[in-house]
Amino acid sequence: MYELRGLNEECGLFGIWGHPEASELTYMALHSLQHRGQEGAGIVATGGDYLFGARGMGLLTEALSQSQLESLRPFSKSIGHVRYATSDSSALSNVQPFLFKSHIGDLGLAHNGNIVNALQIRRALEDDGAIFQTTSDSEVFAHLLRRAKGPSRKARIKTTLQQLKGAFAFVILHEDAMTVALDDHGVRPLMLGMLDGAYCVASETCAFTAIGAEYIRDLEPGELITISDDGIDFDRYTAFENPSMCSMEYIYFARADSEFRGTSTYTIRKALGEELAKEMDIKADIVIGVPDSSLAAAKGFSDESGIPGEQGLLKNRYVGRTFIASGQEARERAVRMKLSPVRDIVEGKSIIVIDDSIVRGTTSKFIVKALKEAGAREVHMGVSSPPLKNPCYYGIDVSTHAEIIASSKSNEEVREEIGADSLTYLSVERMHQVYERFGSRGQCDACFTGNYPIENTDGLLPQEKDAKTKGV
Ligand code: SF4
Fold first, then answer.
1. How far apart are CA 35 and CA 37, in angstroms?
2. Domains of the chain: total
3. Is any ligand 1 atom within 6 A of the Cβ of residue 245?
4. Per UniProt, where does Mg(2+) bind (predicted)?
5. Is 444 annotated as a binding residue?
């Protein structure tokens, strides 16, 4: 339901070094990361000489043709990217990995996140004569790297990374090495794995599962890894670190089977549901989850409360993106096409509906209405995250303040707007307790609390920055 909520992940990354089926494996891995971005996809690969790339718009299966994949098949080193784009930046030129050519070597670049001082850097570089090919904030990395001074490429990459602020997981391909870097707050996830002796990296471990790779560990904030034919080199680009991984990765974005520090997202979501049950003192006949991302939390809620869990809402998996248009009316139509109640399960019952988040309120409002039309006696809404009140500057399109329902309305006003008999959110404290229980070293919770861990130097949302970049 990514498009319906105004809550969209920006990207998914994968890279593998030294495997005879590198580009095919990259394609398979990207397929498993499709939930992180559906607007464009690409692969850049090399056999050790030049870099070659293919990219296109849409879902992976639409973006890359069979002949493009065939042309990349001979290469043993490969990186790939799937992206979500804000409406202003959906041009093919913004689809990654970017491929830069220069006489000192080619560079393939895949980025997940948002660089919050990219506009400032870009303006300075443009004033110095640089001409950008895209409106993407990721391109500043290539320009800075080309200008960086230092005794080695690794030293120049460190210098470049030290100039960037914000959220960035980078997978960078050169002819002779693959470099992987995570920002010093570790906002976006990045995992290290291995397949048949070849190191690989991915935004989520579900990509490793898809190709049969072993998950080794999560990258640490500030970490810089270089993988080449000589082996793997672990380093850091900065001594500073302030772990602030995105809480929304656990709550909503990551696939339920993906693991963080060895625990599946499913288990974490289930625990969030258990904690919500401790805070929501409501008696009801059944608990139902909004499919798919809230089913784990609903299970946890049911286990903790003793209220039987049922599948009272079904999701139509075949609603094409064609039907997902902007505008409130279109969104309501889209929700109606996507979710339907199971009448004989809900009829005459008092129901607790568990959803993982409320952004605009469109989905919740429809769910309450549809369940009541199907005969539900009472509909109580339980949200397995705190009220979402603020936009995100670190690579998630959470929409603007004006579109976020809880940003200007009290809980009671939101309850009234969505038509529920009661509305209970998980508290920020309990959410963090769950994360700490599963080994988190620190989480960003800015969209709930407004406590942004990284100053937004450009002072703009990604979509606003996009317009400024284009001089609009
Ligand atoms: S503001 Fe919210 S969505 Fe953005 S990184 Fe922080 S927790 Fe994630």
1. 6
2. 2
3. no
4. 293, 355-356
5. yes
User: 285 and 325 in one domain?
Assistant: yes
Query: What is the domain extent for residue 357?
Result: 265-441
> Residue 166 and residue 184: Cα distance in Å, rounded?
9
Residue identified by tokens 């809880």 is 406
Q: Which of 251, 440, 445 to mutate to test the pocket of ligand 1 (most atoms within 8 A of CB)?
A: 445
Does residue 297 share a domain with residue 222? no
Residue 157 and residue 221 share a domain: yes
* Residue 455 in tokens: 């100053």
From the CA of 395, how far away is ligand 1's center (Å)?
8
Output the residue whose Cα is nearest ligand 1's atom 4. Answer: 392
Tell me, yes or no, whether 459 lies in a domain: no
Q: What CATH number does residue 337 fall under? A: 3.40.50.2020
214-224 burial, b if ≥16 CB within 10 A, otherwise e? ebbebbbbbbb
13 lines ligand 1 (CB under 6 A): no
> Are residue 196 and residue 110 in the same domain, yes or no?
yes
Are residues 172 and 96 part of one domain?
yes
Q: How far is the CA of 246 from the centre of ligand 1 (A)?
A: 5
| CA nearest to 401, candidates 458, 360, 356 | 360
Query: Is residue 416 a part of any domain in this protein?
Result: yes
Which ligand 1 atom is nearest residue 391's CA?
A: 1
For residues 236 and 328, membership in a common domain is answered with: no
Q: Is residue 346 part of a domain?
A: yes
- Give the pLDDT of the chain (472 residues) as one tens digit per residue: 334 455 666 799 999 999 999 999 999 999 999 999 988 999 999 998 899 999 999 999 999 999 999 999 999 999 999 998 654 455 888 899 999 988 888 999 999 999 999 999 999 999 998 888 888 888 899 999 999 999 999 999 999 999 999 999 999 999 999 999 999 999 999 999 999 999 999 999 999 999 999 999 999 999 999 999 999 999 999 999 899 999 999 999 999 999 999 999 999 999 999 999 999 999 999 999 999 889 999 999 999 999 999 999 998 877 654 444 556 677 777 778 888 999 999 999 999 999 999 998 988 999 999 999 999 999 999 999 999 999 999 988 776 787 899 999 999 999 999 999 999 999 999 999 999 999 999 999 999 999 999 988 777 666 666 656 655 4
Q: Is 206 a catalytic residue?
A: no
CA 436 vs CA 2, 272, 433, 452: distances in Å: 27, 12, 5, 19
